Amino acid sequence: MNEPSSSSELRPVRVWDLPTRLFHWTLALAIVGLLITSKIAGNALVWHMRLGLLVLALLVFRLLWGVVGGHWSRFARFAYAPSTTLRYLRGEHRAGDHFDVGHNPLGAFSVFAMLGILVVQVATGLFANDEIATTGPLNRFVSESTGIALTSWHKGPGQWTIIVLVVLHIGAIVFYRLRGTGLVAPMWAGDKLLPATVPPTLDGVRQRVLALVLFAACAALSVYIERLGA
Ligand code: HEM
Ligand code: HEM
């Protein structure tokens, strides 16, 4: 592929397919809901666990979509070598780079970090125990001390790492905006203004049906895990 900024003729190119965008905004709302429901006593924990299981389904979906999803949503498109990330930070661009199309090396780093810590948070939540009336669905499969240890990660370092990463994430988006690069509109509507030579992500009916089928399977997995706790 040619260096995107080498051509002067720009046109809207689909970069984020609908499944990736729905994944993103549903995840963001669910995380806010999880943090709120975790702070309210009583029945809110029931909703906390429902939202947690939704995030489980979303994460498994995104891991699959990172392999079979749209061109720019695939992990292979933004798994940069450390040397490439350093080059990006030094502002050295080479022909063939596509830093301004999908996730740039810094964005990619934050995406992998967020997905990783969210997987750990959901996993520890599944084994959590509030020592009053609510337990995660897999708590009964571990000893009491293991359940308590996983709960303290979930309530402590897990929670705070997520909050720090989300604040950095939003800070980075504001920083790029101030430097003249708007990232939010493409994550909302799907397109970026790019040279005509940049290949678009396929975002047609076939891809969307595939995403729906995959998400249905991920949701079924979540329901199955929830029922293990019954
Ligand atoms: C709890 C809140 C949030 C979480 C957990 C979160 C998580 C993520 C994740 C995982 C991605 C990667 C998307 C993918 O490739 O699948 C991403 C990208 C993105 N997010 Fe968020 N997000 C949150 C809130 C927000 C908010 C409030 C905004 C808007 C101000 C935002 C704007 C974006 C944008 C523009 C990208 C694409 C960045 C790029 O072009 O590299 N996010 N976010
Ligand atoms: C990314 C997803 C999640 C986030 C951000 C999150 C966040 C939190 C936070 C911050 C607390 C501590 C509340 C406090 O301060 O006392 C908490 C507690 C809890 N969470 Fe999650 N959680 C997530 C996923 C889950 C999942 C998937 C489950 C189980 C299905 C779960 C079950 C629980 C339980 C049972 C507690 C109560 C622990 C206690 O208060 O002792 N969480 N969660």
Give a verbal description of the structure:
This protein has eight helices and two strands; from the N terminus they run E-H-H-H-H-H-H-H-E-H. Helix 1 runs antiparallel to helix 2 and helix 5 packs antiparallel against helix 6. The longest helix is centred in the last third of the chain and has 35 residues. The protein has a single domain, classed as Fumarate Reductase Cytochrome B subunit, CATH 1.20.950. By secondary structure, the protein is mostly helical. Helices cover 63% and strands 4% of the residues. The site of one protoporphyrin IX containing FE (HEM) has 28 residues, from helix 1, helix 2, helix 5 and helix 6.
Helix content: 55-70%
CATH topology: Fumarate Reductase Cytochrome B subunit
Q: How many helix segments?
A: 8
- Largest sheet descriptor: 2 strands, antiparallel
Per DSSP E runs of 2 or more residues, the count of β-strands stands at 2
Sequence of secondary-structure elements: EHHHHHHHEH
Strand order of the largest sheet: 1-2
Kindly provide the name of the CATH class.
Mainly Alpha
Q: CATH architecture, please?
A: Up-down Bundle
Q: In angstroms, what separates the terminal alpha carbons?
A: 53 Å
Number of domains: 1
Looking at the structure, what is the overall shape? elongated
Radius of gyration: 20 Å
**Low confidence ranges:** 1-7
Ligand catalogue = protoporphyrin IX containing FE
Q: What structural class results from the helix and strand content?
A: mainly alpha
Oligomeric state of shown chains: single chain
